[in-house]
Structures are given as C-alpha cells and as structure tokens.
Specification:
Blueprint: H1 2-27, H2 43-46, E1 55-62, E2 68-74, E3 77-82, E4 85-89, E5 95-100, E6 107-110, E7 114-119, E8 122-127, E9 132-137, E10 145-151, E11 154-159, E12 164-169, E13 174-178, E14 199-201, E15 207-211, E16 216-220, E17 226-231, E18 248-251, E19 257-261, E20 266-270, E21 276-281, E22 294-297, E23 303-307, E24 312-318
Antiparallel strand pairs: 1-24, 2-3, 3-4, 4-5, 6-7, 7-8, 8-9, 10-11, 11-12, 12-13, 14-15, 15-16, 16-17, 18-19, 19-20, 20-21, 22-23, 23-24
C-alpha cells in the first residue's frame, strides 16, 4: 500500500513538472513574453520637446551614390563623396561636376583653391576644378583616416586606426602628430572604440577634436597641446551616449557646434561654450537604429545632412 502511494505521488509530481515546463515554453514564445524589469527602453529618449527643435527640413536631393561617405559645403557649393567619386552640386541640387577617384573616399575638405580628400591611408589633393595635384600616402599599417580639415596652409587629419591627429603643410610635409596625451602622462589620450573620429577648425583658427570614447570635445594648439575641453555624457537630449559619440560635427559661423550621433540618431547644436542650445533633427527624422548622418553648414546657418540609410542629402533651415 505504501509502495502504491509513492508511485501515485511520483506521477503527480511528474505531471506538475511537465505543466511548469510547458507553461514556461509558451510564455517565452514571441508575443507571449512578459516585459523584463531589467530591459532598457530607449523609446522615451527618442521623443523630443517640440520647443527644443530649432530647425525644419525644407528639401532633399537624391545624390546617386550607392555608398555615400562624406560632405563639405564651401564656395557656395556642396561637395559630396561616395563610391569612387566626388560630386559638386549647387544649392538647388544641380550636378555641376563629377570627378572620379582612384579609391573610395572617406572625408572631404574644401578651401578656396584646393580640395582635400581622405581615402583609407592617403590624402588626395585636387584643384578646385577637380584636377589631381598630389597624393600623400601614409605608410602606417593600421592607419584608417576618417576626417580632414584645413586652415591657412595647415591640413589636419584624424586617424581612427592609430588614434592620432596629423598636421601637414599644404604641400604634404608632416609637421607634427599627437595622440591627445599630456607630456606628464596624466591625460588619457584619444579613446576611439570604433572607426569614428572627427576633427575641425573654426574660422578663427581653433582646432577641435572629438574624443568619442569620452563624449568630449578637446581644443588643441596646432602643435598638439590641449588648451581646453568640454564633455556631456548622458542619454538625455543634452548629452552623448553609447560607446562613441558624437560621430560627426561641424561649426556654425558663430563657432557653435553642430553634432551628429549614432545609436539614438539625432542632430543637435551646442553653443561655443559647450552649452546645449537645441535640436536640428530629432530621432523621428531618421531610421530606427540607423547611421549617424555626415553634416556640413553654410554661412546662413543652414545644415546639410548626408543620410546614409536613405541615400539622400537633406537640408535643414532655421525656423
């Protein structure tokens, strides 16, 4: 009798265990899972107070690149790179010239007389009409050039592969290079977790470099000594989040910073002091989990965003 009771108990126990397993399986099927209390929801951070949005999108152009890569605005024209070419268009979107390149370009900078293009491990120098004048080649194995900016005979290039900045003369002579570290060893240097590393020079000659792993902007002398910096880490609209942001930046005429972020894709403006000013384009303007757009600005404060996901050039004007 005792043996029979044990058998019945084991059968009941087995049924209970099977029932629990089945219930657990059903609850884990798509659409049946309960919300995890530890799951991080980014949706609330994608919504932006309309009062903070200072710009509106007024037009966009199809640019005809399978893989667009960069943009610059200068001399009342737009310079767009991608695939293996440079396209020069006017503000209405009309193609003025197309120059084929020997390599896939990554970044472009334009002065009154020359066009500088960073492409993998080299800098291609063109006349303003598109004729190739020179080519500077870096022999470092792990170099990966991501940004280029020029000012009064100086050409600055960001190398995400080696996490350093080069300064060349206009003729291609390497004048110096630096890694964002102080001579006393107290600084962390450039922290570049992925292939995004941007720099730029204001019209007043101030060199700024993004330290993406620190979510900071760092101001350097041309010789590579840090003078100041500002940073803003945080997932809220005022800050930069993720492993490495901002991805791209440009300047307005007054020295304000225009930034472009990945992760939660958005374009924002910060005052020259680093104080948050407002939003150009909120996350709702871009694809979910999309790519940060490359950006440029004209003298009127209009902002041009090269949308890599939609393969279009978008123009945002102040409200």
């Amino acid at each position: 009798m005792k043996k029979k009771g044990i058998v019945i108990f084991l059968i009941i126990l087995a049924v209970v265990v099977i029932a629990i397993i089945v219930e657990d399986y059903i609850s884990q099927r798509p659409g049946k899972r309960s919300a995890s209390p530890y799951e991080y929801n980014f949706d609330e951070y994608k919504n932006v107070n309309p009062a903070l949005i200072k710009y509106q999108e007024t037009k966009n152009f199809i640019i005809g690149f399978e893989t667009p890569t960069g943009i610059a605005v200068a001399n009342e024209k737009i310079f767009v790179i991608g695939d293996q070419s440079l396209k020069i268009i006017d503000f209405s979107g009309k193609l003025l010239n197309e120059i084929h390149l020997s390599e896939t370009p990554k970044a472009v900078e334009v002065t009154d007389e020359k066009i500088f293009i960073a492409a993998n491990k080299k800098i291609i120098v063109l006349s303003i009409n598109g004729k190739q004048l020179d080519e500077w080649v870096l022999n470092e194995e792990n170099s990966y050039l991501t940004s280029i900016s020029a000012y009064e005979g100086n050409v600055f290039v960001a190398d995400a592969g080696l996490r350093k900045v080069y300064r060349f003369s206009e003729n291609g002579n390497l004048l110096n290079e630096f890694e964002g570290k102080k001579s006393d060893g107290t600084s962390h240097g450039f922290i570049v977790p992925s292939a995004f590393f941007d720099l730029g020079v204001t019209q007043y000659g101030d060199l700024w470099v993004v330290n993406p792993g620190m979510h900071s902007f760092e101001n350097y002398t041309f010789e590579g000594y840090m003078r100041s910096f500002w940073e803003n880490t945080g997932i809220h609209i005022e800050g930069f989040s993720g492993c490495c942001n901002p991805v791209y930046f440009t300047f307005l005429a007054d020295g304000s910073f225009v930034t472009s972020e990945k992760g939660i894709v958005r374009i924002k403006i910060y005052k020259p002091s680093g104080e948050f000013y407002g939003v150009v384009a909120p996350p709702a303007k871009f694809n979910d989990n999309g790519t940060a757009p490359a950006i440029a600005a004209d003298n009127l404060g209009n902002i041009y965003a090269l949308d890599f996901d939609r393969k279009i050039l978008r123009v945002f004007e102040p409200k």
